[in-house]
Amino acid sequence: MARFDPYENNGGTCVAVAGDGYCVVAADTRLSVGYSILSRDQSKISELADKCVLASSGFQGDIKALQKNLAAKELVYEHNHNKKMSCPAMAQLLSNTLYYKRFFPYYTFNVLGGLDSQGKGCVFTYDAVGSYERTGYSAQGTGAKLIMPVLDNQLKSPSPLLLPAQDAVTPLSESDAVDLVKDVFASATERDIYTGDKLEIVVINSSGIHRECIELRKD
Amino acid sequence: MFRNQYDTDVTTWSPQGRLFQVEYAMEAVKQGSACVGLRSRTHAVLAAVNKAASELSSHQRKVFRVADHAGVALAGLTADGRVLSRFLRSECINHSFVYDAPLPVSRLALRLADKAQVCTQRSWKRPYGVGLLVAGLDETGAHLYYNCPSGNYFEYQAFAIGSRSQAAKTFLERRFEGYNDYTPEQLIKDALSAIKETLQGEKLTSSNCTVSIVGRKDDGTMEPFEMIDAKRIQEIIDSMEAAEEAPAEPSAMQQEEPGTDAAAPAPMDI
């Protein structure tokens, strides 16, 4: 007798890259189950605050629930503190929210991107139960294993002694970072069946948040 | 004569069928500093007099944002008001979490009224000593409600509560019939004029009043609930005074809002 499985992997990939004064957060828009496609146009990205964007891959039910939960908590914070949550504050909140369900986790693989209080780009990467780290770049989801090595090659600082991880924001310009993200997604789309259809790119910088959508291979 | 015998408990009726504790709570509202609210079809404005406990302290917050689409102004025991604002905020967040839509203002007023009623029917509680003007925008337009400690609530075109509010109410009674078609700027001006009536002689400046507005613009986009900043309030006050001093020269006001001098003459006239 097969037991009811409360989880399902709906696939997809999320990436974020931090720069000096900007942050790029990107995710594909394909929703799958097994070998089928459920939607070619389902967003994985949620704008939680004016300098903080969350991209989540994994089980869509938990992604939506988590993103709604965080949005509500952010509103409570705004009412109490009279300002929107900063990205590092949201990072801690996300970690706590995930660990709260340590024994029935949110099946979500998250990447949080935004600007910190100094205006520098920041990326936080998570596992399903809230373990997190601030990095200069990250990828999560089904295509992450294809993308992360490329990002390591392009963005990683030459020696860990030269730059501490916190300051590992890439010296690339905003448009170069966006181009890099487009290229890695195009590559991941080739070999990962769960990644494709469309790529949603969100760039956060001092002038705000702006979105871009480009087509990916649909096979 | 019998008032003192039946006023110890909120759950004791008087022989005339009154609950004195509830009526005393309404008295507390009348002691608080004044607030006014007014609305048009598309916008609602709340204004409050800033009262400071002493010259050394900052003034009490009397206007609270409850959600993007709604806010409250209160008079009376402001601590009770703060707690109720937190409740209203939580109700709005929970509703939009479940229904993905903003809580309609009438439902918000109803939740508040039901909460207030509970305190009139429990012997271990006391009524909230604060009256709230709830202003908001929903699908049916802009709304203004007044919630009393008794648990009653009414919808208004314009209203004033708190000390010396009768002066403001008299002012509003004369003018409210045109409010549905007022522009936001006209509403703000009338709100400030109503507040001015309650100050009775004291000069109206941006430091002794708070004004907030919520509404939907002509193009359909929403203007979320927000306090108007002090600089802008002072500009509006200044333009109102300029119009008063020189009623024969409407051009003084024209630069700010052309075409509104017909509906916003000097408020002290008549």
Automatic annotation (TrEMBL), chain A:
Among InterPro entries, the record links this protein to:
Ntn_hydrolases_N, Proteasome_bsu_CS, Proteasome_sua/b, Proteasome_suB-type
Which top-rank group of organisms is this from? Eukaryota
A GO BP term, please? proteolysis involved in protein catabolic process
The family database entries (SUPFAM superfamilies) matched by this protein are listed as:
N-terminal nucleophile aminohydrolases (Ntn hydrolases)
Per the record, the major location class is cytoplasm
| Record bears the keyword Nucleus | yes
An annotated GO cellular component:
proteasome core complex
- Is the keyword Signal in the record? no
Subcellular localization, as worded in the UniProt entry: Cytoplasm; Nucleus
Keyword terms: Cytoplasm, Nucleus, Proteasome
The protein's matches in PROSITE patterns, at most eight in alphabetical order, are given as: PROTEASOME_BETA_1, PROTEASOME_BETA_2
Q: What does the UniProt function comment say about this protein?
A: Component of the proteasome, a multicatalytic proteinase complex which is characterized by its ability to cleave peptides with Arg, Phe, Tyr, Leu, and Glu adjacent to the leaving group at neutral or slightly basic pH. The proteasome has an ATP-dependent proteolytic activity. Non-catalytic component of the proteasome, a multicatalytic proteinase complex which is characterized by its ability to cleave peptides with Arg, Phe, Tyr, Leu, and Glu adjacent to the leaving group at neutral or slightly basic pH. The proteasome has an ATP-dependent proteolytic activity.
Protein family membership = Belongs to the peptidase T1B family.
Record note on quaternary structure: Component of the proteasome complex.
Put simply, this protein is called Proteasome subunit beta
This chain's source organism reads: Eragrostis curvula
UniProtKB/TrEMBL annotation, chain B:
Show the PROSITE patterns listed in the entry. Answer: PROTEASOME_ALPHA_1, PROTEASOME_ALPHA_2
Where is it located? Cytoplasm; Nucleus
Superkingdom, natural source: Eukaryota
The family assignment reads: Belongs to the peptidase T1A family.
| PANTHER family, alphabetized | PROTEASOME SUBUNIT ALPHA/BETA
Function description: The proteasome is a multicatalytic proteinase complex which is characterized by its ability to cleave peptides with Arg, Phe, Tyr, Leu, and Glu adjacent to the leaving group at neutral or slightly basic pH. The proteasome has an ATP-dependent proteolytic activity.
Protein's name in the database: Proteasome subunit alpha type
| Organism from which the protein derives | Eragrostis curvula
